[in-house]
Amino acid sequence: MCVALAPPDGLARRTGAPRTQPVDLIVLHSTGGPTCDARSGRPIWVGAGTMEENLRQIEAHPTLGVHYMIDRDGTLRASVPASQIAHHVFRHSGRSIGIELINEGDGRDPFPEAQLASLVKLLRELVQRHGIERDGVVRHSDLDQGRMPCAPERRRKVDPGDAFPYERVRALVFGG
Hints:
Elements: E1 25-30, E2 33-36, E3 43-46, H1 51-60, E4 68-70, E5 76-78, E6 96-101, H2 113-130, E7 137-139, H3 140-143, E8 147-148, E9 151-155, H4 166-174
Parallel strand pairs: 1-6, 1-7, 4-6
Antiparallel strand pairs: 2-3, 4-5, 8-9
Helix pairs in contact: 2-4
């Protein structure tokens, strides 16, 4: 198990615009999830991928970003410095820190204990640093209620998914 401390902002590999709002949210994501296939116009599920693939894709994207990514073995990597905006959740990126977890996000793929231990450690650091309350640690699906353009009956964002032990993680970070 590799549980790394959050790298200092200076070691992040991307940059974003400077923050103009204080951080009061931490948004948890999974790398897998639904999308609309550009060729067929039908809904498809994008798999979790590897940390390297995901960071390469996100860091090459002109507008998307993430602050931290945690692999299944607990390896933690920083991307956009937490002092800057990473566009990871519609309408909330300016006031939040985004954490991606390598996972299918389909409600069946389990989150390994090493990954959860690394997440809890990072969350404790971020909560203390930014004074974030329990209700400020949220899932992407809590904030984005949008529908898929190719399948309006389906939600656009379901991550981190039903297999994520949300209440357990928050209890480990905040107690009780």
